[in-house]
């Protein structure tokens, strides 16, 4: 496979974008990415979205968005892998360029969640309908089970969960595209409304609208355009049982472990080589488990790491979710995986502003679908 | 001088506490109290509806105005809970109070704004010289689906205002309305409970319209918030009117008297009108009052009133709004509340 680079990025602000349609936000992000890359065309495009059919009654997003972006008749495909749809779309673009089939591909993600659909019900379609949803459980409930098990097995505390939200809100306060730019305290998190014991409102990522897009290209194109070559040095994906009860343990997300193994091998890197990591913190417990399963911390120590500040930008140990994560930046599900790549792109470009990690040259993004049934991991590097 | 010559409010004496509703649905009472700033709400008695509430409020308004009911040329009742889908509420009221039959009567509906709509049209008739007096009423026995956030707020009550051009107690100096097609809250024909678009009811709906009307009123009048003794806004919960007041530049002290929602709930079409009656009960001659209503769908009506010397004569002629809020209350448990609100359905 030949070298693949990211040469441009664009995203909307994440939040309640009531004045814009799903088409509007997609086009805004895509045009920003195209302009940032400085390309005069794209060869094909992928649109990651989890459930636009249920959220806004619109499917066939590849064709819809190609039409409104004004790029017909290029190939345009909708990619769905629940909350990992964005990461999966990026992976398709990566392969298309790596294989030599295309030179310039747009990888994007979009979701419009605030237009009136019952969001919890729509998101629950990513869980096992027969064995989980039928019995009334939703995603906060599933992650609450994981949290309870983690607390029981490793002594993870309520305060440690809160520390993840506190850190991510602090990072998000420095991100102009974040939905919530306010900082929160451990006390506020622990006193927020109970959602699914032990998870409270401030442990949960919000309901968001948003779109994100990047331009993936061959090294030849990057050189011609004189772009800082930010290489995609690993693209890995893994799956796990759709329902929690099918797993040997609730406290390890095997898809994350397996995708990470593949990614490190492909990139020829180790966890300690990462300068920063974006993880899928749909709930605070998800960040704790992900940091362990990515090998950044020993199993069971993720909570301690968060509480000790080892994942903060300031600590310089291994900054996690410098963008604010899903918790503070927002979680328009289909756009999340691409927004993670954008954070890596900005950090490696040195354009992350107040949340810049000094001398960042290797970064990883972990995007997850459902309660861990899908996981997509990418590692980017700049030399 | 044209304005309010008589006003009156009415609130049922039944109450249910927010914590009782929260307990019923397994919600966190503290979070409700913090988020909505509501401690209890009025509940209509089993023999009360929008018409009886309107009659009681209008009777108080007549007591204050001390006019011949036959001289009232129009009666408008704004509500989203008119007891009949087809049959005016106002006809029962005029017969009960000796108004008419030479009178124009209509039922208005504009979600929570129907009361100020009735006030605005009544005022306009007098201003146009069409009639000596006209009455505008806002009253509701509003509906909230069991377990919905609205159940903590949807309450019962109303206020009536007689507009005229003699012995005016509160002159209307300026009005301004602000309206757009914003579907934040609705109830279709035949549905028992309204539906709402969650957080969309906030910024793009309530705040956009309240701020739109409020700012225009301030510009039109060339007055600034500090010129006013009192301000009152539509009160769907405790938080929204305080936030709207803050954004427009009013202080908590200016809002305090009209901010009766924590103990009354949201009386929908009667919400800002009952807030206004609570203010008129204590206002002094010369006081300026700022008022902006809000109705989903969506729109806001704004008024600026100047209280006159007449106010002191009329204030004590009828029960005050605070009397209704504080008088011997009867607290219901959830079962009684469900029975009172006809939430328990039997076979025909």
List keywords for this structure.
heterodimer; A: 383 residues; alpha/beta; Peroxisomal Thiolase, Chain A, domain 1; 2 domains; nine-stranded mixed sheet; two-stranded antiparallel sheet; 14 helices; 11 strands; 38% helix; B: 348 residues; three-stranded mixed sheet; 35% helix
What does this protein structure show overall?
The complex is a heterodimer of chains A (383) and B (348). Chain A is built from 14 helices and eleven strands. The model of chain A has no long low-confidence stretch (mean pLDDT 97). The longest helix of chain A has 17 residues. In chain A, strands 3-2-4-7-1-8-11-10-9 form a nine-stranded mixed β-sheet, with helices on both faces. The two termini of chain A are 19 Å apart. With 383 residues, chain A is α/β, with parallel strands linked by helices. Chain A folds into two domains: 139 residues, Thiolase/Chalcone synthase (Peroxisomal Thiolase, Chain A, domain 1, 3-Layer(aba) Sandwich); 235 residues, Peroxisomal Thiolase, Chain A, domain 1, CATH 3.40.47. Chain B has a nine-stranded mixed β-sheet, with helices on both faces. Chain B has a three-stranded mixed β-sheet with strand order 3-2-14. Chain B is globular. At the A-B interface, loops of A face loops of B.
CATH architecture of the largest domain in chain A: 3-Layer(aba) Sandwich
Q: What is the oligomer described by this structure?
A: heterodimer
Query: What's the end-to-end separation of chain B, in Å?
Result: 55 Å
Helical percentage of chain A: 25-40%
From the alpha carbons, calculate the radius of gyration of chain B and give it in angstroms: 19 Å
Question: Might you state the CATH topology name of the largest domain in chain A?
Answer: Peroxisomal Thiolase, Chain A, domain 1
Short description:
The complex is a heterodimer of chains A (383) and B (348). By secondary structure, chain A is of the alpha/beta class.
């Amino acid at each position: 496979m030949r070298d693949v680079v990211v040469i441009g990025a664009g995203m909307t602000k994440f939040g309640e974008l009531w004045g814009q349609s799903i088409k509007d936000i997609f086009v805004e992000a895509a045009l920003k990415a195209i302009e940032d890359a400085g390309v005069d065309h794209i060869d094909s495009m992928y649109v990651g979205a989890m459930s636009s059919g249920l959220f806004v009654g619109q499917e066939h997003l590849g064709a819809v968005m190609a039409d409104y972006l004004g790029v017909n008749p290029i190939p345009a495909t909708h990619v769905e892998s629940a909350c990992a749809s964005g990461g999966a779309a990026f992976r398709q673009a990566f392969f298309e360029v790596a294989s030599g089939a295309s030179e310039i591909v747009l990888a994007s993600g979009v979701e419009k969640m605030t237009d009136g659909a019952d969001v919890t019900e729509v998101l629950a379609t990513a869980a096992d309908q027969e064995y989980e949803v039928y019995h009334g459980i939703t995603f906060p409930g599933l992650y609450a089970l994981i949290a309870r098990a983690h607390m029981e097995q490793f002594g993870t505390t309520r305060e440690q969960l809160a520390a993840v939200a506190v850190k991510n809100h602090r990072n998000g306060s420095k991100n102009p595209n974040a939905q919530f730019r306010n900082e929160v305290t451990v006390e506020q998190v622990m006193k927020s409304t109970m959602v699914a014991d032990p998870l409270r409102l401030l442990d949960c990522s919000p309901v968001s609208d948003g779109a994100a897009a990047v331009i993936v290209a061959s090294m030849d194109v990057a050189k011609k355009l004189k772009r800082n070559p930010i290489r995609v040095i690993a693209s890995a994906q893994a799956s796990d049982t759709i329902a929690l009860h099918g797993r040997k343990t609730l406290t390890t997300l095997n898809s994350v472990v397996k995708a990470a193994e593949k990614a490190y091998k492909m990139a020829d890197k180790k966890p300690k080589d990462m300068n920063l990591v974006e993880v899928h913190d749909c709930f605070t417990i998800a960040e704790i488990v992900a940091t362990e399963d990515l090998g950044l911390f020993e199993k069971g120590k993720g909570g301690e790491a968060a509480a000790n500040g080892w994942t903060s930008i300031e600590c310089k140990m291994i900054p996690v979710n410098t963008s604010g994560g899903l918790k503070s930046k927002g979680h328009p599900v289909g756009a999340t995986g691409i927004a993670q790549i954008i954070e890596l792109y900005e950090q490696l470009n040195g354009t992350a502003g107040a949340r810049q990690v000094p001398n960042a040259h290797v970064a990883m993004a972990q995007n997850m679908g459902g309660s861990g049934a899908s996981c997509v991991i990418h590692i980017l590097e700049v030399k | 001088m044209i304005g309010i010559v008589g006003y009156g409010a009415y609130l049922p004496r039944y109450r249910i506490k927010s914590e009782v509703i929260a307990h019923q649905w397994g919600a966190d009472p503290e979070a409700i109290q913090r988020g909505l700033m509501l401690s209890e709400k009025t509940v209509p008695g089993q023999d009360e509806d929008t018409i009886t509430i309107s009659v009681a409020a209008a009777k108080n308004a007549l007591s204050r105005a001390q006019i011949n009911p036959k001289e009232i040329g129009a009666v408008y009742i704004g509500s989203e809970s008119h007891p009949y889908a087809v049959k005016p509420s106002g006809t029962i009221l005029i017969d009960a109070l000796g108004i008419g039959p030479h009178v124009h009567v209509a039922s208005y509906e504009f979600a929570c704004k129907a009361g100020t709509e009735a006030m605005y049209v009544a005022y306009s008739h007098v201003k146009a010289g069409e009639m000596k007096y006209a009455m505008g009423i806002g009253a509701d026995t509003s509906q909230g689906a069991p377990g919905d956030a609205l159940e903590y707020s949807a309450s019962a009550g109303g206020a009536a205002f007689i507009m005229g051009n003699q012995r005016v107690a509160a002159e209307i100096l300026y009005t301004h309305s602000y309206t757009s097609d914003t579907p934040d809250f609705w109830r279709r024909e035949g549905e028992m409970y309204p539906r709402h678009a969650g957080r969309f009811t906030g910024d793009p709906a309530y705040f956009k319209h309240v701020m739109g009307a409020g700012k225009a009123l301030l510009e039109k009048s060339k007055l600034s918030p500090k010129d006013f003794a009192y301000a009152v806004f539509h009160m769907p919960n405790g938080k929204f009117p305080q936030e709207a007041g803050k954004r427009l530049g009013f202080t908590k002290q200016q809002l305090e008297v009209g901010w009766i929602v924590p103990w009354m709930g949201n009386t929908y079409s009667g919400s800002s009108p009952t807030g206004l009656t609570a203010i008129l009960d204590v206002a002094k001659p010369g006081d300026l009052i700022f008022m902006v209503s809000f109705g989903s769908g969506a729109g806001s009506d704004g008024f600026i009133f100047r209280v006159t010397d007449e106010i002191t004569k009329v204030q004590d002629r009828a029960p005050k709004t605070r009397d209704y809020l504080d008088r011997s209350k009867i607290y219901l448990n959830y079962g009684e509340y469900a029975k009172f609100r006809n939430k328990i359905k039997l076979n025909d």
